[in-house]
Amino acid sequence: MIDLRDRRSSLTGVSLLLLLLLFLKYAWTALVFDVPLGYDPGMYRYLFLRYSASFPFLPSLDPWGMEQPTGLFLLSALPLKFLSVDLMLGWIWNLVPVFLSGTFAWIFYRREGAVTGVCVLLMALISIAQYDGFIAMYWKTFASLFFMILTFTFLERKSWMAIPAGALTIAIHHQTGFLFLVTVGSWAAIRLWMDRKKPPLWLFVTVGVGALLGILFYAPIWSTAVLPHFVSVFSGASMPAGSFPPPAFFFLHQGILLFFGLGGFVISFQRERGTLWQWAVLWSGVFVVMHFFFYRRFFLHLDFFLVPFAARGLVQLWKMHRSSFAHVLIALALLAQAVASAYSFAPEMFPFWCRMLPSVCSAFPPIVPEPEITVEALREMSAARHRIPTETLILSLEPTSTPWLRGWMPDHRVAGPGIFSSPWDYDGWERFLLGNESDRRELLRDLRGPVFLFVSPGFLKYYGAASENFLNDPCFQTTEFASFLSVSCL
Question: Model's pTM, two decimal places?
Answer without folding.
Answer: 0.89
